[in-house]
Amino acid sequence: MTTTQPVQDVTNTDPNGPDADWWRQAVVYQIYPRSFADANGDGIGDLQGIISRIDYLERLGIDAVWLSPFYPSALADGGYDVDDYRDIDPRIGTLPEFDAMVERLHAAGIKLIIDIVPNHSSNRHAWFEQAVAAGPGSPERDRYIFRDGRGADGELPPSDWQSIFGGPAWTRVPDGQWYLHLFAPEQPDWNWQNEDVRTDFLATLKFWGDRGVDGFRIDVAHALTKDLPDELPSRADLEDGTSFPEGAHPIWDRDEVHEIYAEWRRLFNSYAPPLAAVAEAWVPAHRRIRYAHPESLGQAFNFDLLQAPWDADRFRTIITENLDLARQSGASSTWVFSNHDVVRHVTRFGLIAQNDAEDPWSPSAGREWLRAGGPADGVDLEVGLKRARAATLMALALPGSAYLYQGEELGLSEVAEIPDDQRQDPTFFRTGGEDVGRDGCRVPLPWTVDGPSYGFGPGPSHLPQPEWFGRYAVQLQSDQPGSTLELYRRAMELRHRLQGAEELEWLDAEDQVLAFRRPGGWVSITNFGDIPVPLPDGELLIITERTDRDLPAYAGAWVKTPE
Ligand code: NOJ
Description:
- With 563 residues, this protein is α/β, with parallel strands linked by helices.
- The chain has helices at residues 47-52, 54-60, 95-107, 126-134, 195-210, 235-240, 257-268, 285-292, 312-329, 345-350, 352-356, 367-371, 381-397, 426-430, 474-477, 484-498, and strands spanning 3-8, 27-31, 64-67, 111-116, 146-147, 170-172, 178-180, 215-218, 276-279, 334-336, 401-405, 502-506, 513-518, 522-527, 533-534, 539-543, 550-551, 556-560.
- The strands form four sheets. The chain has a seven-stranded parallel β-sheet with strand order 9-8-4-3-2-11-10, covered by helices on one side. It has a six-stranded antiparallel β-sheet with strand order 1-12-13-14-18-16, with helices on one face.
- InterPro entries: GH, GH13_cat_dom, O16G_dom_2.
């Protein structure tokens, strides 16, 4: 028995033109700009570096780039602490260089999505500096979330809340008031009840829309609107969350956040084609559809596979649920295994303890291993790489869009060997090293086998690259049959040829095997188990491991099946 899962008719019904649905099945490649390519040799990746690698991106076969923050920033949180939303960090480039990059990407047929960080600015943003200077009760202060403290002299923070990176969520300013920061103290939260904030963000979105960007990735999209009563709930209540009705938690995922996005959507739809937007919203699956609704942002990240153990049943359940959710929201689903916030999936899938344990997984999978210094016997990178390649090949066969993170096309694993004094992530500092943080997936890419920073640039690299990096270099993998880079290239070339309606039909398969057919008569098959299984009859289009006949352990393939 097979079950057909119709998902969405991809016919473009939008009056704005044939390209309006470009994002529905796009492969989007995330560039973390400080670590991609460094043209000027200062150790920090830049826009000229990206421009110099557009031929690489074109050959990779991606449809769009998602560019992580490039704004002026003190880098308290890797650029997610924005000083000025309508400018470029001078270490990264200039506005004319940005324009040139957009033009060059578009000429290569690649769209551009940029990161918008609307929950918080940096503490160096002009409005925050004005808010601190203007004092309690001022209109300037109302743009952020300031409160008096508790205790006889207000010396205690307004509540016992902890920030996401560890440590208190409130910081005191010289006149005695406290401001809220869900993340680092350098990232004060905006007050979205303030009209200036709303108007200014619309101006920012328009600024970039007018410069030719094709869409936005919305950072912490589920935290903008807050309802903070005089008597603040305790940290325990806040984190437990069950005492608040759905959609009415004081901070997270409040229903009215969509009023903001409805206004943004009207702006996005004034462009032809409409600007795309994808929400980073860590919310339960059934709440995700609100962000993905066409009158809200239009698409939302689905991080379910990223948090899943290597298990066929778990993968199948997640895929089925998410295709259903996509249908309900009117959006397409998004598939992602790696990004700049999580341990690279080669390492996650190779962690022996994680994969052998009963209930092994958490969003910070791999952090235990990293904290222990990344012991070699705790991870099997050979297995991890096989599984990662198979997982990605399967994701690229699914209906919907796929988000890739720079370096995964090289099969990079997490860099464990970063000395403490060279770490940058606030998570490391604010947890006293308890959580080593996210630097291990942000190490600048190896382009060449040797050279001062393995071809990242003519100078050093802002995070130390390990001695094994050269073995993963683009130079070594390009045109090398069987390399991970060639696997990605071939998969994307095929995907462009094969991708049709957003439909999927599950096929019967043995235990630990997932197989589904896509319109046009091609099948994706993935072997999660450790013994080979037969391949379906037909023309083998692509396979992650060389084989004579069978599909090896931890391998994936696409097969064109007879009509
Ligand atoms: C999510 C981003 O992906 C992460 O890198 C950042 O630290 C937080 N949001 C805060 O902006």
